[in-house]
Amino acid sequence: MTVSTTLTAIPDVQRIRGLEMPWNRVFQSTPEPAGAARALWPWYPQEFLAECVETVPEAGDMLTIVLRRIDGAPLAFRSGQYLNIAFPVDGPDAEPVNRSYSISSAPTQPWTFAITVKREEGGRVSQWVHENVRPGMVLDMLGPVGAFHLPDMDRRARYLFLAAGAGVTPLMSMIRTIHSLPGRADVVMLYHGAEPGAFAFSRELEHLASVDSRIKVYYSLGDRSVTGTWQGMVGRLTAQMIDEVVPDANGRQVYACGPEGYLDVATDFLSKVGVDDTSIHMESFSGSRATRLEYRDEVAFAGEIAEEIAAAQDEAHEPEPVTAALDLYQIAAGTEAKADDGTAEHYETGDVLAAEPTASAETPAEPSSFETVGEGSLNMSFLRSGLNVRIDPGEEILAAAKQAGIRIGANCQEGMCGSCKIVKLSGDVDMHHQGGIRAREIEAGKFLPCCSTAQTDLVLDA
């Protein structure tokens, strides 16, 4: 008897176009979505208590701390954002020490969330966290915070992740998120570490790369000598190294995280391989004084918003999405800063700077008193920033605003992701978007400055 076996090729996986975060479905549903769905909108930071439920040692002397909110609510956040946490380093009766840590878990599993902390010699908080945080401990938190995150929707979804040391933590949230969602994506991670055994999450990254054809991971040991059976790359980041792992780097959105020196080098080499600076998103785990002050402003602003939302909830009012809460994710388009001890910590915020005053219905700003910059036949008044910007009718609003120093977050800059969305209080614009804004949002006065030009004088809530 002859047995015949026919091998059938496995068909290519068919995926929906692009990558879309699950809360986008909520946005597109009804004007009044269900309460459970609303809870998962990553709109604004809150102050809340969270309990440690698990600790997981990681390579590179890092520790993952898995947490859950005491109130039982999910933590809604965007992958790449961070939490500001009060640690009782000097005992329960002393003033806590505030540090911020990137969330390393994915927002697609929001009932628990995780931070990952690298222990550093001389690191006051990181040492304490490794020695004292255990299941059952309750910590006071503020968040989520930060504009370093994946877009809510990306039709192309082609990324390059550059990680150095503990800078892998927010990128780990991003790569876990992409793996958990359907959609076409193309992700390349280039991960620099100090020694072969110091790459945190390396086993998980290798697994993800083996089961998900959308993900590729490369490792490099920098300029350190190599012993044993190391099979990864060797050498510091160079333009040639970037071109080797991603010949099409100039068509990707780049997310880079690590020490400030690493990011400075990355910026230079990315430019050499043709990546436009509008496609580069960075978060620093060290920084200059100016960067630290920028970070402190961001956390202070988050705290104000959390208090504002809490007060509204105490009065039994539902928070409106078109408020300063939403605008939190439209600030800090530049670099954020983390601790000078090299850990995955932001700078201490015990002496947080006060946020700049903003326009409100109670104390309306008077544009005629604002400083005016730029040249053009039309005027844009930015109420929150307190600045008038002159612009010509054919000039893109986002470019003019950024040149004047107005802080508006932006990712795709093609009208697709919606991250630059702001409110137009008066005037007319000509907008050519690609799905990044809904009809009801336009009716409510929102628009995308990245793909809009001014038709008349404008008054903007930014």
Summarize the structure.
The protein has 462 residues and is of the alpha/beta class. The chain has helices spanning 23-27, 35-39, 124-132, 168-180, 202-211, 239-245, 260-272, 289-314, 324-327, 397-403, 439-443, and strands at 19-20, 46-58, 62-69, 82-87, 97-102, 113-118, 138-145, 153-154, 158-164, 186-192, 215-220, 253-258, 280-284, 371-373, 378-382, 387-391, 422-426, 429-431, 446-447, 452-454, 458-461.
Explain what this protein looks like in three dimensions.
The protein is of the alpha/beta class and 462 residues long. It is 23% helix and 24% strand. It contains eleven helices and 21 strands. It has helices at residues 23-27, 35-39, 124-132, 168-180, 202-211, 239-245, 260-272, 289-314, 324-327, 397-403, 439-443, and strands at 19-20, 46-58, 62-69, 82-87, 97-102, 113-118, 138-145, 153-154, 158-164, 186-192, 215-220, 253-258, 280-284, 371-373, 378-382, 387-391, 422-426, 429-431, 446-447, 452-454, 458-461. Strands 5-4-7-2-3-6 form a six-stranded antiparallel beta sheet. β10, α5 and β11 form a beta-alpha-beta unit. The longest helix has 26 residues, at 289-314. Residues 1-10 and 316-363 have low confidence and may be disordered.
How would the blueprint of this fold be written?
Blueprint lengths: L18 E2 L2 H5 L7 H5 L6 E13 L3 E8 L12 E6 L9 E6 L10 E6 L5 H9 L5 E8 L7 E2 L3 E7 L3 H13 L5 E7 L9 H10 L3 E6 L18 H7 L7 E6 L1 H13 L7 E5 L4 H26 L9 H4 L43 E3 L4 E5 L4 E5 L5 H7 L18 E5 L2 E3 L7 H5 L2 E2 L4 E3 L3 E4 L1
Parallel strand pairs: 9-10, 9-12, 10-11, 12-13, 14-16, 15-21
Antiparallel strand pairs: 1-8, 2-3, 2-7, 3-6, 4-5, 4-7, 15-16, 17-19, 17-21, 18-20
